[in-house]
Design brief:
619 residues; alpha/beta; 5-stranded antiparallel beta sheet; 19 helices; 32% helix; globular
Length: 619
């Protein structure tokens, strides 16, 4: 179903077909569509709608010289406007794009190496596109992968060598007189999941599903040609990629910068909003405290009055973080009604819902809070408004639960992706679910838990099914334990850099907390033990939960996704493989079993000071 955006310029079946419309109109042809800013908030590159349309046509023609429509193309371009052009060029050429953050061409990082091997094996691309320098370095690697080459390095060289390499700098081919790009039913993108709860999976996205998804988001956030976006999110998947498409569908302008620029200087994000008078911007909820801590001295330089949609992504969304952020930036003109808690996942292209509503409807702070969290949807009229159907389901019975009871969130819409590439059994299990009775619409199982409350039926995303901590008669979402652990010693621990999970100890499961220390806080054994004891005691007092193991590691040790989500499963694996830079471990269990993961974790420390502190922890 397609809503009518404008009677004169009706909606298109795929996103790429909007570009020629805007490029041909006198009012939008010379309008900036994408602006690239550097870490100093300086404008480095700009594309108008007319320029982008011409570039995309040329890139598509060039890509179709060595490739055929339907072929798969690995996109290894660095963040920037060239990457944006290639993504849209793929759709116009009718190719299946696989955008991947380009790893260092020495491939020295095992994690990057493994992911690229996974991508090459699963997607089987015919070619790869990158800049000339990167291509030459990859070719050199393939010829001489190293004297002491591991099996994985040899495998990677073998997979990379037969690819056709297309330099992004190649002159464009002749334009085609007719559109031969993606049709709505054609696969145009393989989008990898973030890897927050397991190994990243390749999601198959059709051009029609992507167009439906961004149209739903455009309607939900009430966007139009006057919209100005600012985004620093990775442009390779999920929300960062969606906002590229959303810009085109809305006829808007989008100011982009790189994630690394944000990490170096978080206030860059707000400076760009202020400079360009942006109206809409996405940000992971966990980034709010990071920005707020640095915001005070710069308030006089900021003007945030233009901001209409502050799109909060990456649940959980804590009310306290939002309140603190608003307090810091209220004097810069940030209005509470701009707060737009939202929910999305790669299996539904990206966007699912938001609790934000346009004027006349109660907005933040006049929305409910549940268990410290803000809602991510209003289900009362949501199905009609944006054509997305959301239910909360009992995972065991597949029955829809009553409002007020927590269960798994299921989503059904035309934005649903086709499945996971090359994984038919898992695709059927996740993408073809029906409520008990087996009739009616099909749903995606999100793997997220939620609860619906209130007469407006607000949906709260409470956590992930796989990350729930179960101990005796208690069940707690991992993020609550991590938040409480940080608050026990905020002067020593890194916010957002704590992982809670369970490990095997004989026949039992024990709770483990691994926390990163701030720089310079890794000295003094007794002080470190006190921090560990403080974490353990704080969690017992707050949740009545007995923590068996607390570990302190150096900053940067814990694995995260490209968008900054904690990978608890990977942290657990790295701890078991002794790959974390452990500074201190304290074992609080009454006994350590002779088998299980705990034994494997503690064994390497038997002759070290860390074991002495483990024994102190038992006293």
């Amino acid at each position: 179903m397609m809503e009518n955006y404008d009677p004169l310029f009706p909606d298109q079946p795929v996103v790429d077909l909007y570009l020629p419309v805007w490029a041909s109109l006198p009012s939008t042809a010379l309008k900036p569509v994408f602006i690239w800013a550097d870490a100093g908030a300086n404008e480095r590159d700009t594309l108008t709608y007319s320029q982008l349309n011409s570039c995309v046509t040329g890139i598509a023609s060039n890509l179709l010289l060595p490739l055929q429509k339907g072929d798969t193309l690995l996109i290894l371009c660095a963040p920037g406007l060239q990457l944006v052009q290639v993504i849209f060029g793929c759709q116009r050429a009718g190719l299946v794009g696989v955008p991947v953050i380009p790893p260092d061409p020495s491939f020295s990082s095992p994690q990057q190496q493994q992911h690229l091997i996974r991508v090459l094996r699963q997607t089987k691309p015919k070619a790869a596109v990158a800049d000339r320098e990167y291509i030459s370095l990859v070719r050199a690697y393939c010829e001489f992968p190293g004297a002491s080459t591991s099996q994985e390095r040899r495998m990677l060289a073998t997979l990379l060598a037969p690819l056709k390499w297309i330099p992004i700098e190649t002159n464009a081919g002749p334009p085609s007189s007719t559109y031969t790009g993606c049709q709505p039913e054609d696969v145009y993108l393989i989008q990898y999941t973030s890897g927050a709860t397991g190994t990243p999976k390749p999601v198959v996205v059709t051009a029609g599903a992507a167009a439906h998804n961004v149209r739903a988001a455009r309607k939900a956030y009430d966007l139009d040609l006057s919209t100005i976006f600012v985004s620093w999110l990775p442009q390779y998947h999920d929300c960062g990629l969606m906002f590229l498409l959303l810009t085109i569908v809305s006829g808007a302008t989008c100011v982009l910068t790189s994630p690394s620029a944000f990490v170096q200087r978080p206030l860059l994000w707000l400076e760009l909003i202020s400079k360009y008078q942006a109206t809409c911007t996405p940000v992971p909820a966990f980034a709010l405290p990071l920005v707020a801590r640095r915001g005070g001295p710069c308030l006089h330089k900021l003007d945030l009055r233009s901001l209409r949609n502050l799109v909060l992504i990456n649940e959980p969304i804590y009310d306290s973080d939002v309140q603190d952020f608003l307090k810091v930036f209220a004097d810069a003109g940030l209005h509470p009604s701009a707060i737009a808690p939202s929910y999305g996942l790669a299996e539904n292209c990206t966007f699912v819902s938001t609790a934000w509503a346009p004027g006349g409807v109660p907005s933040f702070p006049d929305i409910p809070v549940h268990a410290q969290l803000l809602p991510s949807a209003r289900l009362g009229s949501y199905d009609i408004d944006v054509d997305v159907h959301i239910v909360v389901v009992d995972e065991e019975t597949f029955e829809q639960v009553e409002d007020g009871r927590e269960g798994e969130i299921w989503v059904s819409s035309e934005s649903n992706a086709n499945g996971y590439l090359g994984q038919p059994w898992l695709s059927h299990e996740v993408f073809n679910c029906r409520l008990k009775g087996g009739v009616g619409r099909r749903f995606i199982r999100t793997g997220d838990r939620g609860i619906v409350l209130g007469h407006q039926r607000f949906l709260f995303v409470t956590g992930r099914c796989r990350d729930m901590i179960r101990s005796h008669d208690r069940t707690v979402h991992a993020h609550y334990l991590e938040t409480r652990a940080y608050k026990s010693h905020p002067e020593c621990l890194r916010g957002g850099c704590i992982a809670a999970f369970q490990v095997q100890n004989g026949e039992d499961q024990v709770v483990a907390i691994i926390a990163e220390l701030q720089k310079g806080k890794d000295k003094g054994a007794l002080s470190l033990v006190r921090i560990c004891k403080g974490i353990q005691g704080s969690l017992f007092k707050e949740y009545g939960l007995e923590v068996g193991l607390v570990g302190l590691v150096k900053g940067g040790s814990l694995p995260k996704t490209s968008s900054g989500k904690m990978q608890r499963w990977a942290a657990k694996e790295k701890l078991a493989r002794r790959e974390l830079e452990v500074v201190q471990l304290v074992w609080f269990g009454k006994s350590c079993g002779s088998s299980g993961l705990i034994q494997a974790i503690l064994e390497p420390f038997e002759s070290s000071l860390a074991l002495l502190q483990i024994e102190i922890g038992l006293e």
